[in-house]
């Protein structure tokens, strides 16, 4: 395949895999695509370990890093025990529901130290982002992506000075234009079908709007892509490649634990719902008793970033320890309905590209007729 994106990054197929799992990143790049490591939930020390592992296993193939550049997160550095800085109303609400439903509480000795470590991964302030960025720039990354917000000018300039490309996720044409004005090289247009933090506009509407708004800057289509037919639709609407996340969660290489995999494979497209209970921002995740609890009329107001994420950690851990799949959730898009069995990353790539080829051949036949 040959598009502006394959030429820009010297890759065989314009398939970008966003994942928090280093194994998925490596496997995608080795299969001819482009792996992008999600670093937003990491400390600088953790990111250094992950990138070192990727460097040692990726055989010189290109890869990238996705992180958060935003100044809207509350600073929790220097705080006392993170559990103690959370409002009791929200803590008692969700934990009380779980206790009444028979989900065992965590031992106190485990909670005390674990909360501090968990919270350390969730500080999305500008200094924390800059620290992660410094780590990334010490490694041979080819692509730096802003998951939320416009990165500071000096960050984008430093990426360019190093001969690298900078990208950004957007949910509207207006956001895309602002990113291009800031100097971004690649726009990832993410429709509302996508997992994680997402906007309100559906992919079929968003993709061509963004393509037209930022031309000739190349656009990667995201949100609702897991098969070759969807890839063909994205390219037909003007995208130069695709950006996928959910489809990799079900792979052999994925980071998901066995219970969470079972939940993922059983989920239908309609089970990927928008919730504020995950992070405090609109986030598409798998429906469970946890997401329903925060959607209930009697639920208290979710906390701001990053406090809601810190709050969510204990319920998630309780569900995991008790093997309570009905309380488990994970950020996932509506394409989750197509993820129902374990496959390798390479097989997913092969199936996607093969179906893409079949689809384009069918369209060519129609045109010839």
TrEMBL record:
Keywords: Dioxygenase, Flavoprotein, FMN, Oxidoreductase. The keyword Flavoprotein applies. Transmembrane segments: none annotated. GO terms for molecular function: dioxygenase activity; nitronate monooxygenase activity. The keyword Ligase does not apply. CDD domains: NPD_like. PANTHER family: 2-NITROPROPANE DIOXYGENASE, MONOOXYGENASE RV1533-RELATED. This is NAD(P)H-dependent flavin oxidoreductase YrpB (Nitropropane dioxygenase family). It comes from Ancylobacter tetraedralis.
């Amino acid at each position: 395949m040959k598009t502006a994106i394959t030429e820009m990054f010297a890759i065989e197929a314009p398939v970008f895999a966003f994942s928090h799992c280093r194994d998925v990143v490596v496997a995608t790049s080795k299969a001819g695509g482009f792996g992008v490591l999600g670093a937003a939930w990491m400390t600088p020390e953790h990111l250094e370990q992950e990138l070192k592992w990727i460097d040692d296993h990726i055989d010189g193939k290109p890869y990238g890093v996705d992180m958060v550049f935003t100044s809207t997160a509350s600073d929790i550095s220097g705080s006392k025990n993170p559990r103690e800085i959370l409002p009791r109303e929200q803590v008692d609400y969700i934990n009380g529901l779980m206790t009444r439903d028979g989900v065992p509480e965590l031992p106190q000795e485990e909670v005390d130290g674990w909360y501090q470590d968990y919270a350390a991964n969730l500080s999305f302030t500008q200094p924390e982002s800059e620290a992660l960025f410094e780590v990334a720039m010490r490694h041979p990354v080819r692509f730096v992506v802003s998951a939320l917000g416009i990165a500071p000018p000096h960050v984008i300039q430093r990426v360019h000075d190093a001969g690298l490309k900078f990208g950004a996720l957007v949910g509207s044409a207006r956001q895309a234009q602002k990113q291009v004005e800031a100097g971004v090289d690649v726009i990832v247009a993410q429709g509302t079908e996508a997992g994680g933090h997402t906007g309100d506009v559906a992919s079929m509407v968003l993709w061509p709007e963004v393509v037209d708004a930022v031309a000739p800057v190349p656009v990667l289509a995201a949100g609702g892509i897991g098969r070759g037919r969807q890839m063909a639709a994205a390219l037909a609407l003007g995208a130069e490649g695709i950006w996928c996340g959910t489809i990799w969660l079900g792979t052999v290489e994925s980071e998901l634990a066995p219970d969470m995999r079972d939940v993922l494979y059983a989920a239908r497209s309609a089970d990927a719902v928008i919730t504020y209970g995950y992070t405090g921002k609109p986030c598409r995740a798998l429906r469970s008793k946890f997401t329903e609890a925060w959607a209930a009329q009697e639920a208290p107001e979710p906390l701001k970033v990053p406090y809601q994420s810190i709050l969510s950690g204990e319920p998630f851990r309780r569900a995991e320890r008790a093997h309570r799949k009905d309380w488990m959730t994970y950020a996932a898009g509506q394409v989750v309905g197509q993820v129902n069995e374990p496959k390798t990353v390479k097989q997913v790539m092969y199936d996607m590209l093969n179906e893409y080829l079949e689809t384009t051949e069918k369209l060519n036949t129609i045109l010839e007729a």
